[in-house]
């Protein structure tokens, strides 16, 4: 089968496996080879597609890149919307651009799901980076194929195939120079680490990392369900029954604690905060209180008293 056929089949199978996707979809189109191939093949798979092109306005010429992507989409027969966003500066430029992009795509999708063109290579990079950085199982499980409204039909498709599909279809994708800039960690993982590992292990590394992601996703789902149940059983009003938590396996307990911390208003709790709160559950010599942040107007801490975990807020 040619590359276009393989990419189209991936989209067709994705739509068949996720009937709630429907036939009316949006595609996040950067103009790069992955998203251009996804757009073309989603149309070939019979989906009704609106391309959403986000112009982050961060580099000179971004306007022209967005216009070229929009023209390519129109020429393929898709509807197109170009979204111009303002990127804040919270947490670094790349993270801020991603946040602005997802918000703009979500605003513009008009009730339809949004297909993104992450490939097997992107998934492998995510898993490997998560492993090397000591991130938790959630991160090593990589990206989900279907996390409504976001769909990723190409997670089993290699980047080389999207490039080949573009060539077969006579499409001329934009090649973002950032994707080759070795100052970016991900670029070095892509161009140096993965090829070396693939060589050392005699091939198949991208696929193997994809399998790691899928099996961890299944494990995570099971542990999350147990954690939800524990969280419900341990709830005493807004507090948590520490004795009941202490009897649970750590993998389930720490997940239940994370959920509780989010519910009581902590911003995404770090590994360190969850570990400190967990020590309050299991270790009598642990700290008397743990600051959890989340509310700029008050100092917010978790304390343990009378066998319960409780949140206390002191106005600043
Ligand atoms: N500016 C954008 N506008 C709309 N969608 C985008 C934009 N940038 C990224 N996306 C979507 O998010 C996916 C992943 O983004 P990422 O930056 O990892 O890919 P990319 O290098 O732009 O790849 P490609 O353009 O080849 O798809 C893209 O495949 C695309 O579906």
UniProtKB/TrEMBL annotation:
Swiss-Prot/TrEMBL keywords: ATP-binding, Cytoplasm, Ligase, Nucleotide-binding, tRNA processing
Residues in tRNA(Ile)-lysidine synthase substrate-binding domain copies: 240-309
Entries under InterPro entries matching the protein: Rossmann-like_a/b/a_fold, TilS/TtcA_N, tRNA_Ile_lys_synt, tRNA_Ile_lys_synt_N, tRNA_Ile_lys_synt_subst-bd
Keyword Nucleotide-binding: yes
Record-stated family: Belongs to the tRNA(Ile)-lysidine synthase family.
PANTHER family in alphabetical order: TRNA(ILE)-LYSIDINE SYNTHASE-RELATED
Domain notes for this protein: The N-terminal region contains the highly conserved SGGXDS motif, predicted to be a P-loop motif involved in ATP binding.
Name recorded for this polypeptide: tRNA(Ile)-lysidine synthase
Species of provenance: Gordonia sesuvii
């Amino acid at each position: 089968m040619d590359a276009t056929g393989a990419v189209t089949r991936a989209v067709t199978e994705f739509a068949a496996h996720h009937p709630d996707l429907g036939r009316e979809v949006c595609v996040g189109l950067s103009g790069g080879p992955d998203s251009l191939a996804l757009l073309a093949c989603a149309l070939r798979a019979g989906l009704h597609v609106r391309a959403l092109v986000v112009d982050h306005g961060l580099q000179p010429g971004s306007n022209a890149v967005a216009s070229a992507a929009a023209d390519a989409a129109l020429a393929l027969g898709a509807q197109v919307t170009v979204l111009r966003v303002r990127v804040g500066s919270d947490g670094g430029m790349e993270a801020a651009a991603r946040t602005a992009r997802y918000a703009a795509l979500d605003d513009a999708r008009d009730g339809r799901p949004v297909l993104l063109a992450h490939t097997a290579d992107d998934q492998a990079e995510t898993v490997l980076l998560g492993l090397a950085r000591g991130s938790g199982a959630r991160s090593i499980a990589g990206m989900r194929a279907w996390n409504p409204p976001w769909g990723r039909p190409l997670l089993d498709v290699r980047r080389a195939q999207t490039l080949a599909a573009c060539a077969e279809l006579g499409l001329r994708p934009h090649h973002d120079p950032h994707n080759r800039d070795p100052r970016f960690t991900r670029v070095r993982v892509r161009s140096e680490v993965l090829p070396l590992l693939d060589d050392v292990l005699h091939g198949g590394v991208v696929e193997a990392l994809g399998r790691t992601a899928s099996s961890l996703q299944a494990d995570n789902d099971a542990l999350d369900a147990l954690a939800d149940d524990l969280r419900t059983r341990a709830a005493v009003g807004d507090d948590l029954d520490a004795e009941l938590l202490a009897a649970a396996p750590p993998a389930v307990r720490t997940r239940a604690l994370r959920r509780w911390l989010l519910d009581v208003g902590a911003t995404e709790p770090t590994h360190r905060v969850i570990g400190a709160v967990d020590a309050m559950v299991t270790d009598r010599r642990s700290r008397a209180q743990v600051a959890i942040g989340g509310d700029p107007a008050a100092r917010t801490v978790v304390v343990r008293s009378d066998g319960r975990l409780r949140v206390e807020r002191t106005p600043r």
